[in-house]
Predict the structure.
Amino acid sequence: MAALNWRGLGWFVGLSVGLAWLCCAPLWLSEAGLADPLALPLMLAMMVTPALATLIVTRWISPPPGGIVKATGLGIGKGRRWGWYWLFAWTVPGLMMVVSPFVSALFGVYDLDLSLSGFRALLNAAGAGEALTNISLWPIVIAQLGVALVAGPLLNAAPVFGEEWGWRGYLLPQLLPLGQWPALIISGVIWGLWHAPIILLGYNYPTNPALGVVMMTAFCVLVGIILGWTRLATGSVWPAVIGHGSINAFGGAIALFTREGATVDTIWATALGITGWPLWVVIIVALVLTHRLPVADPPDRALQGVMTVKPTY
């Protein structure tokens, strides 16, 4: 079994985390925090930091012997069925985001309103409410969800590539000498903790930012296992990019079904919260039971220098 590349790993994690905090420093210094006009540009810049760390490490600090393109999964995929992993990533993560508010409502932690009063209130605030008075909003919701499904993963591909080229492109393969499960879990933990600069400011978990760091880390471990599976099975980072883009595309689904005036506690509700986690667990368990995880024969195992042992069942 190959040894860990501690030099490359150390520099990658240090650069990713350090640059993320550097990007968010103006928000910490600003009294406005996430309400600062620079918040969105700075968070977009933060998303690029893992890719920048990957480029620096693979180009100057610890160049991979097989070349950057192959080592970080920039090909479209290997094997006869790589396209199915793209389709899975395009649809399933987004579907989990849409379904999660309904699951949270079953647990009583999300105020679901199928009359779409919360969505109507948002349209009223945007000045479009008068034109939509006495009109059902469901055709608009269905159209929005359809657009998110078709175009969302592509529209989000550019910003999320900044993360995925780091987490699944570089970090996950580098951790494979520890075994697939440790590599998937550890890379997910690092991914989750990397979010700390904005989570502590109230992003995603505004009701309890400190606990939110723990919650985000758990969420990233679960989602990271699924995205990492597509990376290991195809040898390509692009299905993970598409899957991450799909999640982001459907992130606004929470606002579509919330009752007007209701407060959503994401510690408990939606795909980010405790009641949403079982959805991700179900997918992982299904992959395990169907013998797809751990991946028995990763296509780029030789390149990664990892000894792969096919599991026995």
About this structure: Residues 303-313 have pLDDT under 50 and may be disordered.
